[in-house]
Amino acid sequence: MEEIAVEKPVILPLHPRTRKKLQELSLSLDTVTVIDPVGYLEMVWLIEHCDMVMTDSGGLQKEAFFFKKPCITLRDETEWVELVEHRFNVLAGAKKEKVLDLYKNFAFNERFELDLYGNGDASKKIVDALKREV
Predict the structure, then answer these.
(1) CA dist., res. 53 & res. 68, Å (int)
(2) Which CATH number fits domain 38-133: 3.40.50.150, 2.30.30.220, 3.40.50.2000, 3.40.50.670?
(3) Can you tell me the distance from the alpha carbon of 66 to that of 57, in angstroms, rounded to the nearest whole number?
(4) How many whole angstroms separate alpha carbon 120 and alpha carbon 56?
(5) Total-model pTM
(6) Rounded CA gap, 72 and 68, in Å?
C-alpha cells in the first residue's frame, strides 16, 4: 500500500491493535492515510468516493461491486466467486509483488451493469407469493 499511495491516495481504516503491531514490526505507513476503524455508513461513504477497493473482507468485496468499484482481495480465496469469474474482483493473496502487479496491470471488468444479484424486487416477489398462499 505504501507504493500505491505514492501514485494515488490510500485510506486505511485500521484497528488500534493492528496499528500497534505494525509499529512494533517497524512497518512503515508513512504515505498511507491511516484512520481509526469506521462504522458501516462511513465505510459506504468511503467506497462510494474511492477509485478502487483493496480488502480482506468478504462484505466489502460485494459492496465494491454494488458501488461499481474494482476490488483487489487480499486473500487467496473468496466466497464471492462470481465477482472473480466476471473480473470485478481479483484475488491477490498477501504477496506484495502480486498486489502491485494486479494494481498496475489487471484489466478489471468495467461493465458493472451485469445483473449478478437480481434487480432488487425479491421482497415484492416474496410478498406476492405469500399473498397467493393465504
Answers:
(1) 10
(2) 3.40.50.2000
(3) 15
(4) 26
(5) 0.83
(6) 13
Q: Give Cβ neighbours of residue 19 (< 8 Å, ≥ 6 apart).
A: 34
DSSP annotation string for the chain: -HHHHHHS--EEE--HHHHHHHHHTT---TTSEEE----HHHHHHHHHT-S-EEES-HHHHHHHHHTT--EEESSS--S-HHHHHTTSEEE-TT-HHHHHHHHHH------TT--TT--S-HHHHHHHHHHHH-
Distance CA 11, CA 34 (A): 6
Note the pLDDT tens digit of each residue in 3-44: 999 999 999 999 999 989 988 998 888 899 999 999 999 999
- Provide the grid cell at 61: 468485496
C-beta of residue 122 within 8 angstroms of C-beta of residue 128: no
What would the grid cell of residue 40 be? 458501516
C-alpha cell recorded at residue 96:
506484495
The domains of the chain are located at 38-133
Which grid coordinates are listed for 7? 501514485
